[in-house]
Amino acid sequence: EEGNYLKLSGFETITTAILTQKEGNSTILHANDIKDLDSCELCRGGKSTKIIFLAQSTADKTWIIKDKIVIGPEFLTENCKQAAFSESRDVKVFTLEDEKTHPVTVAEAPEMPVLDKWQWFKASPEIDFAYDTSSWNYAEENKLDSISNRVYDDYIWYKGIFHGHIDEISINAKHCYAVYINAKQVIYHDCVVYCDGEEVPENITFRIDSHYLNQDGPNEITVLVQNLGFDRGFQNELQIPRGIIFFKTLPEKEIEWQIHGGLTPVNENWTETSAENLDHASDNSYIKLFHSTFEYKKQDDVFNPLLLDLTDLPYERADVFLNGKMIGRHWKVKSPQTLFYLPEGFLENRNIICLVVWDIRPRNVLEKGYETTEKYVKIKIRNIKSFKLVPVSEIV
Fold first, then answer.
1. Which of 62, 100, 147, 307 has minimal Cβ neighbours within 10 Å of its Cβ?
2. Is the domain of 343 the same as that of 369?
3. What are phi and psi of 299, to 5 degrees?
4. Where in the sequence is the domain holding 64, given as residue range(s)?
């Protein structure tokens, strides 16, 4: 920094091209006289030491490889096998004896993969009236939480039947949930209240409009709860239950609940299946699976980290899958992550990208229609930058 200086003394000779100032037996180098990569050589008793001055930006690209200092690569791959460059530059290699320059030329950035036309499928048959729950378990009596019922999925389904009318429902569930009566959503709520770092129970009560009910026949109630995770190592899981924690109707109804974990697109491996093998699984559109593919060709001498850009996604929330593996969760109203890294180890020659969208506010999109899906699923694959990979042995 300007005003700082380096004071050297006790050396027989000091050799440098930097402007110096003598002060008795000492030599002073002022910071404002030192440029990036300037050097000075200090000798005493037949031994020499070389000092190379680096700007911060240069220091970020400086590497010690065995007995050499290499300046230029932005990073080195595992075991220092390859050096990465995002732009053409001269690489400087220093040893105690000499220095050399190795030019590296970076060609144009590789083309980005292009997503095929998006297709979408209704994917929440669990909400449909009279859905077959014969494979589901019955919930423990007076214990609806997922842990008591040994369900540890991030999505938890509850389904039951009641007769006659109800005026109100009181519920507490963790963390995000929607209630459906006769396949129609009646409420959605996020229960993520904390006080002094501790979760706070949050019972809510809401009225039920009579138009949701079958006055003369059975009424089917479905609750979908999204569990946002446990404490590290599943600590205190008994003190912080997930799923439905409390449920009551007015007038009070006895409901024999069945419980099941996971969403149809995940349970049935839709996220790794060709779209030609998929079809709408439900009458409702509350949960949808969006499906697209892209080609990818790996180049050994190029590192091109790909991102899925969801910046313009219109939906409230989505789980993101690459070739059947979940790589992230987009949640628009909670400090959203909009860029999702596509791990190179998951990529294949032909890849499937899927979004499982829980459309908690269906009117936002249903009114627009799905005949022009690509207009509303504004997603693209891009990168921040790409890198040419050069064997370190060619440089040093």
1. 100
2. yes
3. -115, 125
4. 5-107
Which backbone phi and psi does 143 adopt, to 5 degrees? Answer: -135, 100
Residue 275 shares a structural domain with residue 250: no
- Together in a domain, 176 and 230: yes
> Same structural domain for residues 325 and 224?
no
Residue 64 burial (C-beta neighbours within 10 Å; 0-12, 13-18, 19+) = exposed
- Is 356 in contact with 289 (CB distance < 8 Å)? yes
Tens of pLDDT, residue by residue over 25-84, are 899 999 999 999 999 999 999 998 889 999 999 999 999 998 899 999 999 999 899 999
Beta bridge partners of 293: 352
- Asked if residues 70 and 90 have their Cβ atoms less than 8 Å apart, the reply is no
Query: Do 139 and 215 sit in the same domain of this protein?
Result: yes
Residue 208 lies in a domain: yes
Structure tokens at 136: 């589901």
Last residue in a domain, options 53, 74, 107: 107
The three-class DSSP label of residue 288 is strand
DSSP assignment of 11-40 equals -SEEEESS-EEEETTEEEEEGGG--TT-EE
Count of domains for the chain: 3
Same domain, 77 and 172: no
Q: Which amino acid is at 233?
A: G
Give the C-alpha separation, 388 to 318, whole Å. Answer: 34
Backbone angles phi, psi at 303, to 5 degrees: -110, 115
Q: Does 253 lie in the same domain as 160?
A: yes
Q: Give the separation between CA 318 and CA 328, rounded to whole angstroms.
A: 9
Say what the pTM is.
Answer: 0.82
Residue 112's alpha-carbon distances to 43, 100, 131, 295, 347, in angstroms, are: 54, 35, 43, 10, 14
User: Does residue 227 share a domain with residue 282?
Assistant: no
Which domain CATH number covers 354? 2.60.120.260
* Tens-digit pLDDT profile for residues 277-290: 999 999 998 999 99
